[in-house]
Amino acid sequence: MARELCKKFKARRNGGAMEQETRWSRLRRSEAAHGYLLVGPPALYAILLLAAPLGTILVYSFLTDGYLEIIREFTLANYREAWTNELYRSVMLRSLGVAMAVTTVTVLLAFPVAYFVSFHVAPERKSLWLFLITIPFWTSYLIRVFLWKVILGFNGVINSGLLGLGIIDEPLTFILYNVNAVVITLAHAYAPFAILPIFVALEKIDRSLLEAGQDLGESKLMTFWRVTLPLAMPGVIASVLIVFIPTIGDYVTPQLVGGPEGRMVANLIQLQYLKLDNYPLGSAIAVSAMSIVTVVSLIFLFLNRRFLRGPK
Amino acid sequence: MTAAAKPTMIEFRDVHKYYGDYHALRGITATIRAGEFFSLLGPSGCGKTTLLRTIAGFEEISSGAVMIDGKHMEGVPANKRPTNMVFQSYAIFPHLTVAENVGFGLRRAKLSKDELNCRVGEALEMVGLRGLGARAAHALSGGQRQRVALARALILKPKVLLLDEPLSALDKKMREQMQVELIKLQRQVGITFILVTHDQEEALVMSDRIAVMFEGEIAQLADPETLYRRPNSRKVADFIGTMNFLPARILSEGEQGIEVEAQGLGRMLLDPSQAPGAASGTGSSVGFRPETATMLFEGQKAEREAMGTVEEVVYYGDMTYYDVRLDGTEAPIRISMRNVFGRPVLEIGARTRVAWSPGAIVLFR
Amino acid sequence: MKGGGFRIYALAYLIFLYAPIILLPLFAFNEGTVIAFPLTGFSTKWFVAAANQPTLWLAVKNSLIIAASASVISTALGVFAARASTRYHFPGKGGVMGLIMLPLVLPEIIVAVSLLVVLLGLGINLSIVTVILGHVLICTPFTIAILTSAFQSLDRSLEEAAYDLGETGISTFRLIILPLVMPGIISSLLISFTISLDEFIIAFFLAGTQPTLPIYIFSQFRFPQAVPVIMALGTVLVACSIVLLASAEYFRRRGLARSGAKDTGGFL
């Protein structure tokens, strides 16, 4: 807005430039008009089916739940309930904890793989490796989660295998229907998501920088520490976000392998909406979950900016 | 037909172009004649490509007028203009064959298959690509892509062919070869070629006339020889080749010429044609090209001589470049000497006599 | 051998990634009802059992209709958005594109409940149409990501050249741009088809009483005796996914080869 004004001022001062200025803006408008025309359909779709529903949820979260209808009365009670009720609070904290654990495990495990593919795989074979890494991600999520249930179950693959080998006498029970199982399953599900952004960041690193690092007398390890890692950091942050955001809102995994003590916020939202029909409270929990996600994401984006501050 | 008698093909009338606040073209007024090989020469960002694109119709101008063959071009889109363009990247359609690329512009003409093949064949022959019509476009070398782009543009028999730095992507050998071929091609088809280039040598070699551009303005428009021998400003002189400058003082200006006293050279009388430029306001100087001065060896004598000391010697094989500081001057001048058999190469610190000629001097006010 | 330790680690990691999927066919072709080692014998009876369930076939039909519609609509929207963002500058572009790409970083359950609330509020009956609406929303960001890279590798002067040679804006799009981004479009169709086919949460909330394949599978998890059938079904699904993905990758690479660009790998 301010820039637009400045332009007008300048044009006036230039006197003769006035006419060119208006013609220029006409042309610009026509280019912008093309852009708006093209972006119109997808934008309209997103506004009607994404922005409007999200706005509705936000409004609902401040309304009062009547028994069979929603009372149009502003209240903060839903949020008070969502943040003070022991049950809801513990579920939200658990979701946060699980998402953080999953993110840490996934990113730490993924980094060496991304590093290997970027630095040690011949260029013409990189695509194949990436393809192999991505395939499991695209195969039915439900089935994969269910397979973990089969693997970790009381009569599951691990227990029957270990029993058969005589390593244990009775089935292990701490591996299914609890938080551990949720973390393992989610870490497996989002592994490829963590690898790709790190890989992309590593690919962008100019290899001569590493040679320069060693040429300037650093060991390989110190070169990694002082050159590679800082340059790969934006990728690491991106994979943290790309794993953290969907895991905190995951429904299927806690539902199938979490058991009662492994429930997460998505299960809670589903419960409020589909079982208890309490839309306002469900909305308040959903908005709270989104706020947590946003706050954590902003923290990481802020960190990312610090790393990006140097080179652009 | 003499050059001056040729009719006008393109006329720019006070053309301005703004990108927001950025003033890219600042009042271009010029004419380009029919059948001329015309170059727009200048450093990057000087507006030469923008000017070319206003002819093609890819850039709308902010004010002024562009006329092609006597017709006002305002509101005429690129696909309706009698011009065709060879792009810097060549813009060869990668999913089409060579023949399909060359025949692309004939689609709308709805020719019979035989006629189409015949004309594509002709065009390919003209650029020396006979028999390559079935080749996939992405399997071509840089030089071949350039030829396809030429054939594709010329097949439509445009009145003007626009070339946007067409040789910049080629290596030196290939570039020199294509320069000669482009000149021949232009003579053969006889239409106006407008070339954009930042390479002064390329412009000098190929063009009938050259417009040298700086910062959105045409600094000088002339034939190559005038541009080289009588540049109208120090900036033009510096951009085209090398020129030595010495501070000078104008003593008198009269019927018989301009009397000038230059540092290191002394007094001289110059013809008014030797001062083609307007006053710059930064003080006068005289300039001359390195090859217009010579170092004198024992026994040689010249009408005008000056004494100096060799400060730097750069040996180029066929030539030697000397930096000589004339007595009474602050900065050395450059002199290029052909390495004739038997002539010694001087060493740094040697005293030398320099012969120069007032006729080769340009005065910048 | 380059990167010895890393290579061993990476291979171990791949095995970890694939371990559950490898179990699928093992138990799908296993005769026993209980999913446990040791295996008891080869059998195809679970595949036959799967094929004999009428609800399954309804679910498959629904899922195919949903996936086909969602992939076509989201790819069409993706073409618009990708073209707009790569070719034109307009005020507010960042915000608009951000909103369209938002589902990529939004937990799906949020998308699902917010749509549910609005659809019910408007009195729209839940059906496979409402599932399609939701799936288009989450598929579009992926199609834009794929198509943007396809549009980006287009040299702008190709368009100008066609225009210069007498074509109009529309015929330039048809003759030059469309053929060059076609591999990207096909790859985008395949990817969004795969995403939609596999999507559970949104379908769970928005399908009403209609089953889709993931909903059907989820409902079968409750019955222990249905587990081997699910294994058989999963085997078929995984095989289909791999075929779809391999073709998407094939088209993506062909697109790269055609435009002469360098392969930077991966869909994302």
Automatic annotation (TrEMBL), chain A:
The keyword Transmembrane helix applies. The chain crosses the membrane at residues 43-63, 96-121, 127-143, 174-202, 223-245, 281-303. GO terms for biological process: transmembrane transport. It is a multi-pass membrane protein. It is found in: Cell membrane. Residues 92-302 form the ABC transmembrane type-1 domain. One of its GO terms (cellular component) is plasma membrane. PANTHER family: INNER MEMBRANE ABC TRANSPORTER PERMEASE PROTEIN YDCU-RELATED, INNER MEMBRANE ABC TRANSPORTER PERMEASE PROTEIN YDCU-RELATED-RELATED. This is ABC-type spermidine/putrescine transport system permease subunit I. It comes from Cereibacter azotoformans.
TrEMBL record, chain B:
One of its GO terms (biological process) is putrescine transport. It is an enzyme of class 7 (translocase). Keywords: ATP-binding, Cell membrane, Membrane, Nucleotide-binding, Translocase, Transport. SMART domains: AAA. Pfam families: ABC_tran (PF00005), TOBE_2 (PF08402). Its EC number is 7.6.2.11. GO terms for molecular function: ABC-type polyamine transporter activity; ATP binding; ATP hydrolysis activity. Residues 10-240 form the ABC transporter domain. InterPro entries: AAA+_ATPase, ABC_SmlMolc_Importer, ABC_transporter-like_ATP-bd, ABC_transporter-like_CS, Mo/tungstate-bd_C_term_dom, P-loop_NTPase, PotA-like, Transp-assoc_OB_typ2. It catalyses: ATP + H2O + polyamine-[polyamine-binding protein]Side 1 = ADP + phosphate + polyamineSide 2 + [polyamine-binding protein]Side 1. GO terms for cellular component: ATP-binding cassette (ABC) transporter complex. It comes from the Bacteria. NCBIfam families: potA. The complex is composed of two ATP-binding proteins (PotA), two transmembrane proteins (PotB and PotC) and a solute-binding protein (PotD). Part of the ABC transporter complex PotABCD involved in spermidine/putrescine import. Responsible for energy coupling to the transport system. Belongs to the ABC transporter superfamily. Spermidine/putrescine importer (TC 3.A.1.11.1) family. This is Spermidine/putrescine import ATP-binding protein PotA. It comes from Cereibacter azotoformans. The lineage of its organism: Bacteria, Pseudomonadati, Pseudomonadota, Alphaproteobacteria, Rhodobacterales.
From TrEMBL, chain C:
Coiled coil: none annotated. It holds the Pfam family BPD_transp_1. It is a multi-pass membrane protein. The keyword Transmembrane helix applies. Keywords: Cell membrane, Membrane, Transmembrane, Transmembrane helix, Transport. PROSITE patterns: ABC_TM1. One of its GO terms (cellular component) is plasma membrane. The chain crosses the membrane at residues 7-28, 34-52, 64-84, 96-122, 129-151, 171-193, 200-219, 225-248. It is found in: Cell membrane. The keyword tRNA processing does not apply. GO terms for biological process: transmembrane transport. Residues 60-248 form the ABC transmembrane type-1 domain. Belongs to the binding-protein-dependent transport system permease family. CysTW subfamily. PANTHER family: PUTRESCINE TRANSPORT SYSTEM PERMEASE PROTEIN POTI. This is ABC-type spermidine/putrescine transport system permease subunit II. It comes from Cereibacter azotoformans.
